[in-house]
Amino acid sequence: MPLNYDIPLYRPPSEGDNLIIQVTLGCSFNQCSFCSMYRQKQYSQRLLADVAGDIHKAARSRPDTRRVFLADGDALSLPTGQLLMILDELYVALPKLSRVSCYATPANILNKSPDELAQLKDRGLSLLYLGIESGSNLILKKITKGASQRGIAEAMHKAHDSGLKLSATVILGLGGKKYWQEHIDGTIELLKRAPVTYLSTLQLHLEEDIIAEFETKFGEGFEPADDRDVLHEQLRLLSGLNPPKTLIFRSNHVSNTLALAGNIPRDREKLLGQLQRALDGQEALRPWFMRGM
Length: 293
Fold this sequence. Notes:
Blueprint: E1 19-22, E2 24-25, E3 44-45, H1 48-61, E4 67-71, H2 80-93, E5 99-104, H3 106-110, H4 114-122, E6 125-133, H5 137-142, H6 149-161, E7 165-172, H7 180-193, E8 198-203, H8 211-218, H9 227-240, E9 247-250, E10 261-264, H10 268-279
Helix pairs in contact: 1-2, 2-4, 6-7, 7-9, 9-10
């Protein structure tokens, strides 16, 4: 029997085939100017009894589940005690379960103590999806991210030190034509300071209902980046990345103009070659009608 999800429901591309359990609804921050994902929802924490009911309903229909994603926007905002109970319920109901993941904001992580994060890791939470969006303080302010480069780096180190894996996302095009170098260089600086296991790029795609807010909060005229601009951003990012440890890179999200996959630094030259071929017109780009957030 399928679960009755509170729609809209979002998850990372890599969680597409995995079981999704909603433990919160909406996003507790919900002020990022580029994101309209949860504007239709009032943030709330679901009752534990309702979450447990969903877990056991899913266990009856999908008893061999190995991976679970906790939704909605920032499940890590739940009190640690509640998350621990949910994790325990999951691992009892799903004996083959090997990974539980969720979205997280920098504030979610910083609001947990190192001991709380370690407890969550020990009880089976293993991967956090962290939208860093940009490492530039200027861009972070213009998109009302509610975080600084320093705060994001601190959150990343805190999660890493607790044994949690991080999958970080960067949004290409956030600086428009004027601030694209500031956006990318700040992101490179951040990723030199803080370790991630996975790094993905998305490409800026503003829904109609959020455009006016984005432009107002940006604070000046915003000239969107085109596909060639975004390819140049990707080139600059991959050329400059020198992470403290090897990371797995993907641009497989449907918003991206060009799908890339590899390990950095091992596959850097291969990825740069793909990007240059795309700029030279020798590699096809994803058509606009196939893109979205």
